[in-house]
Every structure is written in C-alpha cells, then in structure tokens.
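Recall from the previous chapter that SMILES is a line notation for molecules. Here it describes zinc ion.
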Amino acid sequence: MPPRPYILAETTWKAVKDTRFQVAVLPWGATEAHNYHLPYATDNIQCDHVAAEAARRAWEAGARVVVLPTIPFGVQTGQLDIPLCLNLNPSTQAAMLADLAHSLDVQAVPKLVILNGHGGNDFRQMIRELQPKVKCFLTAVSWYKVVDPKGHFQDLGDHAGELETSVMLHIAPDLVRPLSEAGDGREKKPRLAAMREGWAWAPRQWTKVSADTGIGDPRAATREKGAAYFSAAVEKIGRFLIDLSATDVKDLYVDPTKIK
Ligand SMILES: [Zn+2]
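With both inputs in hand, we obtain:
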C-alpha cells in the first residue's frame, strides 16, 4: 500500500512542510483483555482503522486532516488484577494531552480531535481544564457512540461483545479466535438499585462483574454486521472532520432557525 498522506506515521517532512493541516486526529485506545477470543490491542486496532478511514474520506473531500499515532494505553484502574491490562491514570493522560496540544499550538494546527476507543477513557474534564490554556480547539469523539448499536446488534454488552467482535471480524479477522472459544460475556449486575438504574455511578470492579473479562455475548457477531456498523460510523466521523476543518471555531453557534 502506498503511503497515505493523512497518516502521520507514513508521511514525510517533504509532504508535511507544504501542507497547512487544519485538523489533527489523536486516536486513544487501551491495552486490555477482551474475553478469550479478541486480542489485547482490540481498542487500538479499532481506533487505527476508524481514524484512517474517516480521515481518508475527509482528505479526499479536500480537508487537510492528519492522524497522529494511536496512544495504546488507557485507564485500567478497575482491571489492575488482570495480567497485562496496562493502566495510564487520567492525570497522566492529561499531562500527555497537554504536551501534545502544546506542540500543535506552537505549530499552528488549529484543531484537535481525540478519537477515543476505550470506555474507561474520559477526556471531557481534561478538555475543560486544558482548553483555556491553548489556542488549538479541542474536542473528543468516542467512535463507538457515534452510531446507535441498537439498530445493528442483538446484544448490547459493551466490552468484547457482539459489536467489538463484529467490527474486528471486519477489520482484522486474522486476530479473532474462533467464536467457539469465546466466553459468554455474562455480566453481574450491581446489588444497589441506584447503580443498576445508572444514577449512582462507580467504576466496575471488572473481575467481580465478568468471569471471562468480556461484557456482552459475542456469539451472534458477524463480519457483515461489523462492516455495516463500521461504515456508518466512519461516514459520520469523516463528515465531522470535513465540517470541523471548514468551521471557524470562534463562530460555532447559530440560531436554531438557521440550521439546514
Ligand atoms: Zn474494547
């Protein structure tokens, strides 16, 4: 495959020095167990593919976007008792984000999209704190929240379940073990009603919730479901990159009657 000009890891200074990039995309995943059948890099592989395909669509429409290397470690404080789930604390992530945003700021890249691929990562409070300190406009997208999974999958479990397994069957089928080897991803529910109803929150204690590290039954996953979900998500994210690239972030808001 020839080098893609919108993937920083594949491009060169020769190409970069003459391009005025409008939007940088920073994919941010995790390294963690995904039931018995998906690899530890599942979130990173998904982030890589979603970012690359969304950026390709934007680039071909004329938007100057660049995908930065994926950060492969996420927040895993609830999975520290699972071997090789590798944790970055939120405060460490905030420090990394600040350094990278500062680089882009100095280099006059005006917009940064954090493309999140891991449920334990949450960049919103980091952006609230960092945004007043940098000119670069900061925004975050969790790619698996862009399209409602309800229309695509029977089981809506959120970790190594039908969604992630289907997407991996589409983008990296060689890394998916036979589904006959997968656990059923059965999830224990909180004893406390307030937590079951979702208005009291605490991070899940992973090994107490799931026996196989999965949450959600992967066994109805198919490559076709993964392809359809992936393509619906990258279409919307690609459109967002095009629109963001063309938008003056000092003029983000409009009277609702003027929205087309
Ligand atoms: Zn995952």
